[in-house]
Amino acid sequence: MFSPFRDADGRPKALPDVTWDDLAQLTDMDEGYVLEFKRELSPSVRRKIPKIIASFANSRGGWTVIGITDDTKQIAPIPRPQADFSQTVGELCRRHISPAPPFDARFIVDPANDRQGVALIQVAEGDFPPYVADGVVEIREGSTSGPATGGALVELYDKTDRRHSEVAEFCRRTVYYPGVTTPLFDLYLFRMGQRTADAPSRARIAEHVEAMQAGFALQGMDCHVQHAHDSLIVRNRPPLRDGEAHSAIELFGDESMKLTVPAVPLNEGARDHAASILASVDQAIPEGSQLVDARQTLRRVTRMATALDRYVRERGISWRSYAVAYELEGMAGIVLWSDLPEYLAYVRKHGALFCGTTDGRSRVRYLDDGEHDSFRARQFAASHFFEACGLPLGSSDPEDNALVDALLSTSR
User: Fold this and answer.
1) Cis before residue 238, ω within 30 degrees of 0?
2) What's the confidence (pLDDT) of residue 198?
3) What was the pLDDT predicted at 194?
C-alpha cells in the first residue's frame, strides 16, 4: 500500500511508525489520487471526512493529512482534540459510511507544544465495496472525490464478488497428514487488503519464521518449519513421524494462515469407561464412531491458537484485517466425551454430544465489519470446535450454560 513516508532505507512507513520529523517529507508532495491535505479540522472538514474516507476505500486507498497548508505544504499544527482522534474518526464512519471502511487514524503531537499537532488518516483499499457515504458512492477523481456512476459502480460490485471467491478458495486449503485418520479441526484466517502478487523476500520470510518461533516458544513448544511451494508449514513436531497426528500452522506470504489441530481420541481404557456410562443410561456408542477427549482436545486447540495469537501480536497485525472460518475434517458423527460431572449429568439427561453434520465448514466472518474490535484466536477456536460438535453455545438453558462453562474452562 502507498505511503508518503519513507524510512532511512527508502522503505514505506506504516502509520504507527510515522514521527513528527517524518512530516517534513510532505513538503515535496502534491495532493493527488492517494493523498489529500487539509489546513484545519474545521466543521466543514469534519463533514467531508466520511466522504474522503469512503472515496479512498472505493479506490486504491490513501492518506488524509490535517495540519498541512495546501499551497506551501508546510506544517501548520492544529489544536490537539480533546477526544481521542481515532475514536472521533471511527464515530464519523459509523454514522455516515456503510459498510465499515478499513482505516486507521492518529494524532501526532508537536514535540515543541503538546497542545497541538498534525492528524493523519490512513485508508486501505476496501475489500467489499461499494462504501456508501451518506447515500453516495464516492470514488477518487484526481485529487478530489466524486460520485461513482455506470461502469465504475459495476467494477466495485465485481470486486466484492471476486474477493468473496478468493476467501472461499482459500478455505479449501488442506495440509497433508500422511497415514493419519484422526479427525482434524481447521481454522482459516485469510488476511484482507493484501494486493501484491510478488513473492515475499527471503528477509521477510525470515521475519515471519522468527515471529512464529517466538510464539511457539512462549507456549513451550518446538517449532519445525517446512517449505511448501507458496507457504511455510510450521509444525509442533517433525513431520512423517510414525504417521502420528500433530498440529500445524500453514503461513502464507501475505500472512494469511491456516491452523490445523487433530482431535485427541480416547484410548481403549477410557473408551470402555465411556461405553459403560452410556450403557447405564440406555445409550450405546454408534458402530464405527470415534470418541474424542473434549478436555485434551481443548488444551491442544487453545495451545496452538494461542501461539498463532502471539504471532499476530509479535508482527503487529490487527485482527480486523482477517476473515475467519473453521472446518471439521473427518469429524462427522464423532462423539465428544468428558468425565467432568457437568458433562456426565448432561449425558444422562440429553445424551452425548456429537457432530451431527457431514458438512463441517462454517460461514466466513469478516472481522473488519466494525463489530469485532478485538478477536482472540484461542477463544474462537475452542468455542467453535465444541459448537460444531454439538455444544449448545448461546442457549438460554442454565444447564446448557453450566456445561459450556465447564468444558471451555482452562482452569481445571
Assistant:
1) no
2) 61
3) 63
User: Nearest Cα to 389, choosing from 341, 349, 352, 354?
Assistant: 354
Below-70 pLDDT ranges, the chain? 179-180, 194-198, 239-244, 358-359, 368-375, 410-412
CB atoms < 10 A from the CB of 235, how many? 21
- pTM for this predicted structure: 0.77
- Kindly report the number of other CB atoms within 10 A of residue 80's CB atom: 15
SS3 content of the chain, % helix, strand, coil (to 5): 35, 25, 40
3-state secondary structure of 110: strand
Residue at grid coordinates 448432561? 346
C-alpha 98/C-alpha 356 separation (Å) is: 37
Write the CB contacts of 262 (distance below 8 Å, at least 6 apart in sequence). Answer: 177, 180, 182, 183, 184, 185, 245, 246, 247, 300
**Cβ pair 277, 212 in contact under 8 A:** no
Closest by CA to 342, choosing from 383, 389, 386, 399, is 399
Sequence-separated contacts (24+) of 90-98 with Cβ below 8 Å: 92/46, 92/49, 92/50, 93/50, 93/53, 93/370, 94/370, 95/50, 96/50, 96/133, 96/134, 97/50, 97/53, 97/54, 97/131, 97/132, 97/133, 98/131, 98/132
Looking at residue 195, what is its pLDDT?
A: 56
Q: Is 106 helix (H, G, I), strand (E, B) or coil?
A: strand
Alpha helices, DSSP H, located in 195-335: 202-218, 268-280, 294-315
Element (H or E) spanning 248, and its range? strand 248-252
- pLDDT digit string, tens, across residues 259-272: 998 888 888 888 88
